[in-house]
Amino acid sequence: MTQNSNQRDGFSGRLGIIAAAAGSAIGLGNIWKFPYITGEYGGAAFILVYLICIAFIGLPIMLAEFVVGRRAQKNAIGAFKAEAPGSKWFLTGALGIITAFILLSFYGVVSGWTLHYLGLSALNSLADQTPEQLGNVFGTFIADPWLPVLWQVLFMALCVAVVLGGVKNGIERYSKILMPLLLVILIVLAIRSLTLPGAAKGIEFLFSPDFSKLNMEAVLAAMGHAFFSLSLGMGTMITYGSYIGKQENLGVTAVQVSVADTVIALIAGLAIFPAVFAFGIEPSSGPGLVFITLPNVFGQMPFGTGFSMLFFALLAVAALTSAISILEVIVAYLDEEFGWKRKTSTLVVAGMVTLVGALLSQGNGILSWLKLPFLISGEVSHMNIFDWFISLSDQLLPIGGFFIALFVGWKLDKKAVADELSNDGKLTIAYLAAYRITLKLIAPAAIAFVFLASIFGWFSP
Ligand code: PHE
């Protein structure tokens, strides 16, 4: 890829951008993580807080990342250096690079799980099992020292292959076709799940909020997940923003991506929770929830095995289009700031991430005795290294987002922001005043408050 800024590789047009940015946003976050944390934090009330976070924090910050990226035409660190030369703001980008590394290390592991389940479906070995048996299948698998690592390595190799292809031919081409197909499969699954006997309880769980279960820890989880799900707070959307053409409407793009991401998460919820209750599975089963619940749903469908294979294959693809966007953050940085060749940076970064991930994976098995301290709700709790990294990323992303909001709200020139949003005055942007206030005050204040309140346990019983 040429580093010269007027020959930057870029997305080919409207559909390409949406597909790639939505491809980044839509991933394991929507289909694996959203359902299981919704289950852990009690359902509808959690979802409501999540939706509020998307609208008032996530969406404005996505737009802020687009503005920084497209204006600077640079990677996550380079963009801050270009827009605020000589200042310390580049550290926001540096935090993003570190977060990307942490995130991708466990993301690759969970993505490997989906490949394993694709294999299990193909062998038909998930059929006719009780939820309890499926729970054991999952537990035994993730505790294995080798098998998850094998799949993780395979998945990371796929990522490398796509990232080496560059933006247009690699990232974009795959997103465009496969994401809509995933949506169709999810809708079919949701219909099957909703028509199971006993599904009504799941609908209630999803839509009738019980605020007594909501504590500050749940609010932080909702906020952290809003960042995770929209791929915010670590420079992904800065990097992708730098590939967006100057004629595109950034505001509209941000809304479309956020809506698509949210809709997919909610449909995933509709596919999973009615079935969770219909089959008597614990909603709070944790990271295994999707892997335990859905095979039961497939068992109740004509062509269940085929659907199961298709679903896990598409989930792996959704994970792939997200993982490459995480990898791209680090690769673009090394290429542009240090002049590394794309091939070298991709291989080195993916190799290191895979090693760390393989180690984390042992936290579910042979290293499960190793617990790291984590401060939440004013107390130090202990978690295995795998869960610890997931929780850490839930805290790092909002911190990154906080600084990005402040950067665009206070530091960037007012006119520059207006020009970027309006394409130099070609578009009318009625939302500008409200947007400024959101970035200057509302989003940063909300992030800081939720963060401190949950860590120190304010308002917790
Ligand atoms: N948004 C992706 C998902 O929901 C994960 C991701 C996070 C991707 C941060 C890029 C940056 O699966």
Write out key terms for the chains shown.
461 residues, mainly alpha, Amino acid/polyamine transporter I, 73% helix, 3% strand, binds phenylalanine
CATH architecture: Up-down Bundle
Runs with pLDDT <50, length 5+? 1-6
**Overall pLDDT, averaged?**
91
| Number of E strands | 2
The tally of domains stands at 1
* Helix-strand category: mainly alpha
Q: Largest beta sheet, briefly?
A: 2 strands, antiparallel
CATH homologous superfamily designation: Amino acid/polyamine transporter I
> Globular, elongated, flat, extended or rod-shaped: what is the shape?
globular
Number of helices: 18
Termini separation (Å)?
55 Å
Task: Please trace the helix and strand order, writing H or E for each element.
Answer: HHHHHHHHHHHHHHHEEHHH
As for the CATH topology, it is Amino acid/polyamine transporter I
Q: Give the distinct bound molecules.
A: phenylalanine
For the CA atoms, what is the radius of gyration?
21 Å
The amount of helix comes to over 70%
The order of strands across the largest sheet is 1-2
The percent range for strand residues is under 5%
Architecture overview:
The chain is mainly alpha-helical and 461 residues long. The protein has one domain: Up-down Bundle (Amino acid/polyamine transporter I), CATH 1.20.1740.10. Helices cover 73% and strands 3% of the residues. It has helices spanning 14-25, 28-40, 44-72, 76-83, 90-122, 131-143, 147-164, 167-194, 200-207, 216-229, 236-241, 250-278, 289-299, 304-338, 342-361, 385-411, 414-422, 432-456, and strands at 371-376, 379-384. It has a two-stranded antiparallel ribbon. Helix 6 packs across helix 13 (289-299) and helix 10 (216-229) packs across helix 16.
